[in-house]
Amino acid sequence: MDTLLIAADSALRTLFARPRAGEPSPARSLPAVDLSVEQRRLSSALMRVNHVGEVCAQGLYMAQSCVTRDPQLRSDLLAAAREETDHLAWTRERLDALGSRPSLLNPLWFAGAFAIGLVAARVSDQASLGFVVETERQVSAHLQGHLRRLPEADLPSRAIVDRMQRDEERHAAQAQAAGALPLPPPARWLMKAAAKVMTTTAHYI
């Protein structure tokens, strides 16, 4: 029951409250930049997609922590979720600075990620960790693509994305070390297809 209450609280905080980071944003120490209308529009769209990714991370980690019976794994998943909360707060701060908004479909994204996390975790802890590894690897590659697309002048957004990518790679390595099982190719393909739908939609909505 306690775990379910924690998950419900996470959903409410993720979707309806302004997230609070435990660590200052990497962009906070950087000066404001003057972007053109086109540059601002592109940065806003990419950071909205990244914010959606962090909403999904909250749903995924919370679902997995609800199902596992391993106290150490639950602790590790909740610790990762707290780190992802920093990313959630940083991307939201950057959206505000750009004069933009989060995705209107965030409740849908959270619910979908939570459902997928439940399914993966019910198979086994090792399968659940394998899902984390594949997710974080795909997110890392996705963030690398954003670093190539973000305007060179948008140093604050670039600083946030760079830090996020390094954190995601670390999460993948930790899950791998904890005994993750590799996902079969069809599962990896489906994950990529679902991510494509999400990122394309969140770019605009």
UniProtKB/TrEMBL annotation:
Reactions the enzyme catalyzes: a 5-methoxy-2-methyl-3-(all-trans-polyprenyl)benzene-1,4-diol + AH2 + O2 = a 3-demethylubiquinol + A + H2O
Superkingdom of this protein's organism: Bacteria
UniProt topology in membrane: Peripheral membrane protein
Pathway stated in the Swiss-Prot or TrEMBL entry: Cofactor biosynthesis; ubiquinone biosynthesis
Organism: Diaphorobacter nitroreducens
The gene coding this protein: coq7
This enzyme's EC code(s): 1.14.99.60
Subcellular locations according to the entry: Cell membrane
Name the UniProt record assigns to this protein: 3-demethoxyubiquinol 3-hydroxylase
